[in-house]
């Protein structure tokens, strides 16, 4: 990535991460008009280790090396050391995505105000491969991709409605008094005519512990595809910033599975060589299939 | 208020507030289709006093009576006793109001999910007296009310755009497979076509301290008119629930004024009988006018 | 439990839990002088379900029954419905326990103030079976119980030091001006002479989601024995209050195990009948032993 | 301040504050053995302005200059931009101060663990000018300084009790197995014998908005003298770090006064030249004296 806008760096005695300095200020494209952009950060893998070692005091002499300590902290849910690193993003995103995002309350946000300012004429239109029917199994997900005819119809509607509503927004604002006979209405009122795929933007600042929690939920296959695309890009930022933490996060969270009490007893029986079936497992159909998937066992076996 | 839906009450040994029991479960109308409805509560004025008195231990023998103590707590920003009371609302509100509301992070929320379910065909349309032009002085406010001609035009647009977009939403969902040749698209996608004045609803639970903070900001004249209408109704609920706290809140917050260091010195000079003007006050124009307003001095005096 | 202090109940239309009403206000003894006491509560299992169902809107027609829904919410980490129930305790506890407890930031607290009031002459002294040497394996735990001689010595020291320091506290306060020649010192200063096993007390209010998180960490065998004794009593309160949530909590949290990516692949190999040893597992010694313990496999097998 | 430990700086494209770089890592002494030490920071005055201006979008063209904007934000309680700057301290402090400090929940903390490690033999002993009797007017404050005889007695007690309890702590630990006949007890148990003036230490990370809130409460004359000494040193750090924010904080918070509804009407009457007395003011004695103090009017006037 060519770092066109790079200012000559200042000198600092703070922890500095070269791999993240390269990304600083550069927009990383997401969806059709969105982006994430790292604006600032504080701390690195070493800062997490330092915070954890405050606890050990004199004991640090024999402490295991950094990577092992970070794995230990992640494995045992010692969350406060990961709160000691912080990152700030500038993000451009559709309003319906912003509404899901803001439910994470442990972050600081400054959003573009449509009461002060006029929103740009930009709205999210899905690509054809994103246009899918309601899932049959998953009440909140997508099923099969649409036919190209139906896709074209849907995209036509989304585009026309967003554009028409935006044009009416501009007309109601009458911001440049194009029509001298009209007063126009306040920005805070006119914007209520805009569609939920209109883009907004914000500064979003969060500590690493809470960012990982956000990412765990939002890269999950149950999250809506659009917010997952943001989460996946942020995950690559985390990997550049704190590679040891990233590795521990993948090992103990992202690719870990939670075995309920009943699922644990099923696994015990399987290890003993017992043929367990859903009906004698004590698990519901859904739990049973999730367990098989987690263990990479084909369900047709129905062992 | 006739309490039609009243179930026969259960017996409880918890603090109970009769004036709030009467309001329980009853929707209080706000805007054209919105409401607030108290679903549950915990604590009363006495519970706040009890929590505060834990601090005093043996000292309670000589403690002043409840009302004075609540005033003392409010005046000295002792916030934790007010966290000891809690309330839960069911609220129906337009999405653009929900977006302002959710910025208050110290509450618990369960919102209607447009990924799981289909939104109702209900959208906020301002009354004519709410339709006003952009304010000249206030970059985020409203100025003069529109002419009736322009009002009618604006309302026509808002209604038609919201209705058309909703009809397209239904068409894209094809929920009842009216058109057997189309798969329809997932709910989570179709809803991006809806306008920001579409109604949503949620359960919202918050402690009294944070509720008062919310109300202080949202009954303020700088808040958008629509959210103020919700805040004003909630204020009447607070008055019924914790009347002593309500009184202290009005005295020390809602109708109190904050004098900056410079404004304090202006007031000192005024009390000594000095003729202070904006130019010799050390205050900006805006601060000067706010001070005069706070002191109910007509600015034309320009004392 | 005889409910001596019971006032005749008030009538309420709020959700009421009989099994918890019985416990209301009654101190449940913990350690030598401590207790927990439920002061108030809000919500029940049904309130959690109601909040979750706001999300489903029209979809509720086909919704599964309450118990299944609560399991589903717990399993899929849908935390906000569990925030909709709230509980308030009055707790008496030693200061060193209070210092661990307060690290949980998502609660409201009003603590007895040793600046305002004089602390009681009460301090925690461990029972003999609690007096143990430093663990060899666990840097933050206990190992073998002391000999009765050493126990007696230790208890003697703890008692004498706490008593002497308390007597000096009283002397420095000179609260009743026993010695007319001395002014005595301020309470906020005198208390710095007290030992960390002195008892304090507070009101502590928390929502159910955060309470379960607290309990998960504090009933854990890595938590210090003294705080675990409080946590275990609170767990019985949760069971009385929200029995369905309690059951789901045990199933999906308390008795569940987390399999890391590597541990999951070990389990897959075991199920296929492969003989896995620590050395070919990819796990550290500690992780390997924890996995065997989780699966109830004796380590001596070293399969 | 000579920056002995300075490593040669890394290059960074992040906002950098020279006046704070100089302070980085250097302990600033507080009390007899305590210190604060800035470990890391993120953002500066400009970062606050940038975050605020996200809201203005296109409107930034005519936006007022930075200093005026920061004053505006502070005056109107726009708190989120101040959350965009972050600072991390390493702090050494007595346990009784730590207990007051930790009540501020909006920070991240990693504390030295007396379960893992052995605490140092360091405890806070007040200087003679800090040793004062209980205040007569203020139930939580200090009155007159002690006589030198009584001071010497009190300091003797504090020193002897802390030392004896520490020596018993060491004896009970038997950490180096000086006495081969004893097992010693676990660190987590032995420490309960220590006094509340024993020093602990932690990493403490907080955003600027919440830091200012902490400082406002903790430099206040109602705060205990010991924590005020920490707060005052932190205030000088804030001044070096974000000088414009510091100035606005002093103007609109630290040296501002809050006039209740009733106090406002008293001020109005005073400005009109009316002779107001406590008895006709509608204020309590305490409120009346606070108002006079705020307006720098001698109470003997009793105007």
Automatic annotation (TrEMBL), chains A, B, C, D:
Its EC number is 2.1.1.148. Pfam families: Thy1. Its cofactor is FAD. It comes from the Bacteria. One of its GO terms (molecular function) is NADPH binding. GO terms for biological process: dTMP biosynthetic process; dTTP biosynthetic process; methylation. The active site is at 218 (involved in ionization of n3 of dump, leading to its activation). Binds 4 FAD per tetramer. Each FAD binding site is formed by three monomers. The keyword rRNA-binding does not apply. This is Flavin-dependent thymidylate synthase.
């Amino acid at each position: 990535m060519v770092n066109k806008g790079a200012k000559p760096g200042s000198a600092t005695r703070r922890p500095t991460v070269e791999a993240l300095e390269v990304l600083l200020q550069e927009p990383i494209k997401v969806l059709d008009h969105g982006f994430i952009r790292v604006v600032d950060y504080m701390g690195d893998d070493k800062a997490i280790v330092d915070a954890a070692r405050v606890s050990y005091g004199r004991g640090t002499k024999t402490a295991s090396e950094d990577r092992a300590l970070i794995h230990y902290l992640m494995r045992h849910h010692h969350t406060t050391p990961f709160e000691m690193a912080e990152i700030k993003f500038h993000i451009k995103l559709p309003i319906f995505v912003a509404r899901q995002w803001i439910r994470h309350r442990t972050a600081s946000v400054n959003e573009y105000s449509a009461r002060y300012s006029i929103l740009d004429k930009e709205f999210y239109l899905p690509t054809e491969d994103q246009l899918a029917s309601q899932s049959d199994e998953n009440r909140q997900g997508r099923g099969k991709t649409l036919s190209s005819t139906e896709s074209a119809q849907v995209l036509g509607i989304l585009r026309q409605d967003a554009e028409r509503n935006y044009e009416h927004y501009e007309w109601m604002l009458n911001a440049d008094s194009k029509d001298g006979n009209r007063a126009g209405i306040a920005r805070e009122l006119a914007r209520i005519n805009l569609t939920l795929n209109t883009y907004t933007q914000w500064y979003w600042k969060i500590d690493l512990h809470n960012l990982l929690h956000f990412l765990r939920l939002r890269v999950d296959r149950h999250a809506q595809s659009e917010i997952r695309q943001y989460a996946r890009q942020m995950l690559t930022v985390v990997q550049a910033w704190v590679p040891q933490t990233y590795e521990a996060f993948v090992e103990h969270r992202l690719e870990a599975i939670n075995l309920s009490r009943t699922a644990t007893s099923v696994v015990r029986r399987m290890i003993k060589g017992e043929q367990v079936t859903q009906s004698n497992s004590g698990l519901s159909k859904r739990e049973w299939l999730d367990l098989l998937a987690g263990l990479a066992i084909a369900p047709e076996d129905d062992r």
